[in-house]
Amino acid sequence: MRNKPLIFTVVLTAILVALALNMRGQDRVADLSSRDLLSPMQEKQLPALERISLTRGEGRVELARHDGTWGVVSHAGFPVQQERLAALLHALRGARVVEEKTSNPEHHARLGLEVAADSEALKVDLHTPELDFGVIYGDRVGNGQLVRFIDNDQVLLLNRPLSISVSPLDWLALKAVDIPMQQVATARWTHADGETLELDKRAEGDYNLRMVGLEADQQSGNERWINSMVLALINLTAQNVALREDLALAEPMLRMQVTTWAGAELAASLHDVEGRYWLVIDNYAAAEAEEDPLQVNADSRWAYQIGIGQVENLNKRQADIVRSP
């Protein structure tokens, strides 16, 4: 009688182990029965891709590679956000077919696989010098998604869904400047009317900037206003981009200069073009002995559109910074 609990425990453990082994075996069978979405030939073409287009309803974004760099076609080839492109290619390469569904084209519309102006189907077209192919993504089913190849009626169930934007703005690499605040040594802001703000730091590694010429009691408590002005430039993420030659850029409303302790120099200017604000990087010289190069897109072709909040931070004057209690 005393052994009954022990016997019960042993039997229960054996049952649980058997169930776990059975479930693991089923998972292995599922893994073995699934296959890659792309054929070996198609997967081999991914590194050679020259053009990718994504279409959903009336939304469309087209990407093209030129001289080894991917750009957004609708924005004159401005660089693509690499993380988003990598996510797309990873989804294509890693997707697995877990089940074949219908091959009757009459069911495509019901399954979200009919491409039309009012459809939510995502069409991914891929072009290489040797092969053109593409995939249409339809309705989600559980944790997976229904797809079919563009030139094939066979519907497939994938093991994972793909959710990705078809807005060109979401594909632009709009992080234009990324300089850590601790590396900034000096800054100079010059307004169109001649008012100039000179900023520096007491020592290398400090975070807070101070305004040259202000008494200590005027500096205290105003650090965040000074810092926010410079941060708006050195951590600049734009809202949009345009070719400078397409804009009527006149004399700037503000000129900005920043230098780092290592010796890098950044010069930029702010322009008002018919009520829209554009920031231009006029010059950038990297430091000679810089271990970790700063991230600055100083390509002279581009102007960066910024929002009113960013303009308010950049376009500060001494009266905006030195605030009495």
What is the count of helical runs? 8
SSE run: HEHEEEEHEEEEEHEEEEHHEEEEEEHH
> Main β-sheet: number of strands, strand sense, barrel status?
10 strands, antiparallel
Number-wise, the strands total 20
Protein name: DUF4340 domain-containing protein
Domain DUF4340: 70-243
InterPro entries: DUF4340
Pfam families: DUF4340
In short:
The chain is an alpha+beta fold and 325 residues long.
Write the layout of secondary structure elements.
Layout lengths: L3 H30 L1 E2 L3 H6 L5 E6 L2 E8 L2 E4 L5 E2 L2 H13 L1 E5 L21 E6 L4 E10 L2 E6 L6 E3 L9 H4 L5 E2 L5 E8 L4 E5 L9 E2 L4 H4 L3 H12 L5 E4 L10 E7 L4 E9 L2 E10 L9 E2 L5 E5 L1 H7 L3 H4 L4
Antiparallel strand pairs: 1-6, 2-3, 2-7, 3-4, 4-5, 6-10, 7-8, 8-9, 9-10, 11-19, 12-13, 12-16, 13-14, 15-20, 16-17, 17-18, 18-20
Helix pairs in contact: 6-7
Describe this structure in words.
The longest helix has 30 residues, at 4-33. This protein has helices at residues 4-33, 40-45, 82-94, 168-171, 216-219, 223-234, 308-314, 318-321; strands spanning 35-36, 51-56, 59-66, 69-72, 78-79, 96-100, 122-127, 132-141, 144-149, 156-158, 177-178, 184-191, 196-200, 210-211, 240-243, 254-260, 265-273, 276-285, 295-296, 302-306. It is elongated, with a radius of gyration of 29 Å. With 325 residues, it is an alpha+beta fold. The strands form three sheets. It has a ten-stranded antiparallel beta sheet with strand order 1-6-10-9-8-7-2-3-4-5. The protein has an eight-stranded antiparallel beta sheet with strand order 14-13-12-16-17-18-20-15. The protein has a two-stranded antiparallel sheet with strand order 11-19. The chain folds into two domains: 35-171, no CATH class; 175-320, no CATH class. The protein contains eight helices and 20 strands. A hairpin with a 6-residue loop joins strand 9 and strand 10 (156-158). Helix 6 (223-234) crosses helix 7. Helix content is 25%, strand content 33%. This is DUF4340 domain-containing protein. Residues 70-243 form the DUF4340 domain.
